[in-house]
Amino acid sequence: xxxxxxxxKIYSIMKDVNIKDILKFIEKNPKLLKQFSKQKEPxxxxxxxxxxxxxxxxxxxxxxxxxxxxxxxxxxxxxINDYWYKxxxxxxxxxxxxxxxxxxxxxxxxxCQNKSTLLxxxxxxxxxxxxxxxxxxxxxxxxxAMGSIYLCGSEEQKEYWLPKMREMQxxxxxxxxxxxxxxxxxxxxxxxxxxxxxxxxxxNGQKKWIGNSTFSDITIIWARDIDTSDVKGFIVEASNxxxxxxxxxxxxxLKIVQNGLITLDNCIIDEKDRLQNANSFKDxxxxxxxxRAGVAWQSVxxxxxxxxxxxxxxxERKQFGKTIDSFQLTQxxxxxxxxxxxxxxxxxxQLSLLQDRNEMSDEQAxxxxxxxxxxxxxxxxxxxxxxxxxxxxxxYDIAKYMADAEALxxxxxxxxxxxxxxxxxxxxxxxFV
Length: 433
Hints:
This protein is of the alpha+beta class. The protein contains 14 helices and nine strands. The chain has three domains: 53-171, Orthogonal Bundle (Butyryl-Coa Dehydrogenase, subunit A, domain 1); 173-280, Butyryl-CoA Dehydrogenase, subunit A, domain 2 (Beta Barrel), CATH 2.40.110; 282-427, Butyryl-CoA Dehydrogenase, subunit A, domain 3 (Up-down Bundle). It has helices at residues 4-14, 19-28, 30-37, 59-86, 94-100, 117-130, 132-152, 155-166, 185-188, 281-316, 328-356, 362-386, 398-410, 415-427; strands at residues 172-175, 192-195, 201-211, 218-225, 231-237, 243-247, 259-269, 318-319, 322-323. The chain is elongated.
């Protein structure tokens, strides 16, 4: 604080200044006034890759990532909320997704690019950053459906189906979950298959929550062999007699994904359409293990979108005369969101490196899926809170992220099932019922 002597000194200087002369000088030098009055605006940092994870990509792979990001920002973001609201799938985007050349990205041969699962995961994150439903659509088609054929099909089956699916001429879905069987699919499938005397197979039962199934051309159906109790996989075409799909209505999460209830009523399948290398649930589990890291990346992508949306909103929303991002509580919340996100990114990045070296275990994939999806829930919840009342409006996006997060949290193994897989690896004891 200035002393009394200091104030007297300032006054003695100022009393000799002619204010009119100062005003005349300013009038003659307007640029000088602008220079003094202009204050540098604080820079907004929307970067959700705080530890530069994506910088580890090769220039070629990063170009693919940026191409996907630009597509989602320019082609998808302006229209996608309307489809979410109407519970419809944007079929017109399928040719554009095909042109991105990201289908079957990590598979070797059959017209695929043989890229890393790291890049495949990051692409899933870039899709989910704007719309988790489109990311799920690609995860089902390119991951679960193509992956089942890639891992469990014969060479003839792979040669026939995979190039067509990569070009998205054929859209696939994956039928494992049933109306009464979710987490217990390993030993409790009620959908059955029976080999007939002529070498064909008869399938009976129901599958529920099957994404893409209302419009897919083929569905991978997993069924229990009546004679041997082994789990087998089948490529079932939508035109097969005895195969029927009913759209599941009333969802409040991933509304763009078209989930179906499939009924198989004496559905006859040729032996050539049985996945020749799928002979037990262990083979089914190989597919789930491969795609589980992709779900972790989807959760990261959704969290990136929610975080960026929240930072931007807080920079624009004013209360008490200034933007809410200038308040301590807001900055604390944003810092915690970024901390969760950065930890999640680093965890799944390391998981993908393990997967690319064929060193990833079931428990490592499960730990990433459950821990990252929990972090995603914290991020979207904090973000919605910072939006206040606007946080429940679709136009502000955060409510959509929050709703969609619930599906990612639940599918590809619930939190509890994944925790028990990890717990078993820690203790050596089986805690499943």
